[in-house]
Amino acid sequence: MAIALSEASWDELWTDWDRAYRADAMDKDDWIIEYPPQLAQGYKRNIYLRNGITLTLHNYRFHDDLTVISTQSEATGEPYRELEFVFNLSSTSRYWQGDFVTSGQHYLIAHASLGSFYCQEFAKEPKLAVDIHLEPAVFKSIVSNSLHILPLDLRRMVESDDCHPVSRFQTITPAMQLALAQILNCPYQGVLKQMYLESKSVELLVLFLNQAQINSGTTSKIRLQADDVERINEAKKILIQHIDNPPTLLTLARQVGLNDRKLKQGFRQVFNTTVFGYLHHYRMEKARQLLIEQWSISAIATAVGYASPTAFNAAFRRKFGTNPKAYQLASRHNISGNW
Questions:
Q1: Is the N or the C terminus of the chain less surrounded, counting Cβ atoms within 10 Å?
Q2: Which residue, 87, 316, 51, 108, is CA-closest to 180?
Q3: What would the pLDDT profile of 119-170 be if each residue is shown by its tens digit?
Q4: How far is CA 334 from CA 63, 64, 257, in A?
Q5: Could you report the per-residue pLDDT of 245-303, keeping only the tens digit for each?
């Protein structure tokens, strides 16, 4: 059953519930907030860092699909602007009835309190995500006011309310996955944790901006004919069909009738990732689905092309910030309805 709430009703649920407690006894600015039990099981964790960044770690699963809607007339109070860099490791959502955000994607939201808001969250999978919240002034100070390094669409999101509120969705890179896993598994407490998470948050912003620069058209593109695109799509199908034992890049190029250079460059242009970056993402998504279906870890490792469960466990943790067994146990618990 789908649930629809106005922003006022959403806020009221949180006000009535308000179950919060300290996550770190040595840090008064690190709080876990449990989700209202009517909506979900799990929590979000807010860590207020000294450099003006707030980290929000999401770890929960909705009982039902949820839509939250606010209109211009609902917004009250002084206008504010906030930037939210979202790194979505696991979940499906949708903003303003646009494209779906799926696992392994990241994007930027420019919030304005006097603007309307529409968000759908889907209950079919757990939500695991890391958000970086900061005001535009804080972001400008981090980049030393050098906004000219940003692509035009991102620059407008930082500087003006007259912009699309959500950026294009991009693929989380392996370097981002590593930084996200380090944030989710931070080994420190107190001031050391603050220092560590500040550095990792800035590292994620660097990786986000670097990818945005690369994808903004600053790199040269090759000219692709319709037949080339068809062959590149065929290459993708071959990878999916042979996920457990994929061909080498040279073999794949020969199979679809392209040279390896055109396949590499064309694949990135069409799918915004590398050939084997796409394969890795597909493998992890397939593995996640098989975990929900309660396959054994060793069977999943074999099915998605890993030589051993150990190698699969390491790859899954890098991608999603948790190990396969823990993910499977959580999904089993949710499916059984034992909230």
A1: N
A2: 87
A3: 889 888 899 999 999 999 999 999 988 888 888 888 888 887 666 788 888 8
A4: 8, 11, 46
A5: 999 999 999 999 999 989 998 888 777 678 988 898 889 889 988 998 889 999 999 99
Residue 109 sits in which domain range? 3-218
Same domain (yes/no): 238, 201: no
Q: Which helix (H) or strand (E) holds 333?
A: helix 324-336
Please tell me whether the overall predicted TM-score, pTM, comes out greater than 0.85 for this model: no
Distance CA 311, CA 307 (A): 7
Total of domains in the chain = 2
- What DSSP state is assigned to residue 160? -
Residue 139 identity: F
* Residue whose C-alpha is closest to residue 183's, from 206, 152, 210, 204: 204
CATH number of the domain where residue 238 is located: 1.10.10.60
Question: Where a domain ends, among 218, 247, 269?
Answer: 218
* Pair (149, 91) in one structural domain: yes
Give yes or no: residues 280 and 203 share one domain. no
Could you give the C-alpha distances from 167 to 72, 84, 110, in angstroms and in order?
21, 11, 8
**What are 303's two structure tokens?**
């099915």
Residues 136 and 182 in one domain: yes
